[in-house]
Design goal:
271 residues; alpha/beta; Rossmann fold; 7-stranded mixed β-sheet; 4-stranded antiparallel β-sheet; 28% helix; globular
């Protein structure tokens, strides 16, 4: 089995806030990289133990999150995509499954930590009326390619989001946000600072659970690949992005349409 791993940072246990832990200028950024890479290695170990033969790790964090020197030597690492065709981040139909590590929930989600979709200025992102976040972006790209989402590791709110969108996916929660949302009135900068409370597993316990979950996901993919599914979207595809007030600009709404492809739809903002 060939598995694609999408990684992010904000959903990892021990990533306590945004600016200190996931930006290269942050005082704990190198620790954040180590946390993400070790969580990713735990998932890699579980996937290989469950029957995976080949794994590609995609560093999907905006500023980069994987520490290459610490990454499991058996996998390949991808970082960087054509500016006009970022999606689907190197995923193609040759893969048998997609796994996620360090993923966070979409904007407006109750009890999420460091909540956002792409960035903190996005209030809501929908495709054909379905509100999605970064997990959903990749999940619908994968669906178009015929590749199921099999594993989702990250915060508890993301685990719930993934289970609701992609039936059969194995989820592992490594931390729990403690703040409700209902913060549509906040600007980009204020929302960025508003959802920073969470209860975290220890790093060792997060590693243990991620390994066990990835092992289970690989075994289930091998034994019953038909258990994984996602709601079918029918063309044409319409994307609506609602933005918060940001740096003196008022709230705004942007719309995109594509007649045949979700992947092409998601790439339209970069054209």
């Amino acid at each position: 089995m060939k598995i694609f791993i999408m990684t992010d940072m904000e959903g990892c246990a021990g990533i306590l806030n945004h600016d200190d832990w996931v930006l290269p200028t942050g005082r704990y950024y190198e620790q954040g990289q180590k946390i993400l890479t070790e969580e990713t290695n735990a998932v890699i170990e579980g996937l290989f133990a469950g029957g995976a033969a080949e794994i590609l790790v995609c560093d999907g964090h905006g500023k980069g999150g994987i520490a290459p020197l610490l990454l499991d030597a058996r996998v390949r690492l991808q970082r960087g995509w054509p500016a006009e065709a970022i999606f689907p981040f190197g995923l193609d139909a040759s893969f048998n499954g997609v796994a996620f590590v360090g993923q966070h929930a979409k904007s407006r989600t109750d009890y999420s930590h460091i909540t956002h979709t792409d960035w903190f200025d996005v209030l809501e992102d929908t495709i054909n009326g379905i509100a999605i976040g970064e997990y959903g972006h990749t999940a619908f790209c994968a669906a178009e390619l015929g590749v199921p989402c099999i594993f989702a590791g990250g915060e508890e709110a993301l685990a719930l989001e993934a289970a609701a969108l992609t039936s059969g996916v194995v989820t592992v929660a490594v931390k729990q946000g403690v703040m409700k949302d209902g913060l549509d009135h906040l600007s980009e900068d204020d929302y960025r600072k508003a959802k920073l409370g969470a209860i975290h597993l220890s790093h060792a316990e997060a590693i243990r659970r991620l390994h066990a979950g990835a092992l289970q996901a690989a075994q289930q993919l091998k034994n019953n690949p038909g258990q994984f599914s996602i709601p079918a979207l029918k063309p044409p595809y319409a994307r609506v992005i609602r933005y918060r007030a940001s740096h003196g600009k008022p709230p705004r709404t942007v719309r995109y349409r594509h007649p045949t492809s979700v992947i092409a739809l998601l790439n339209l903002p970069f054209k």
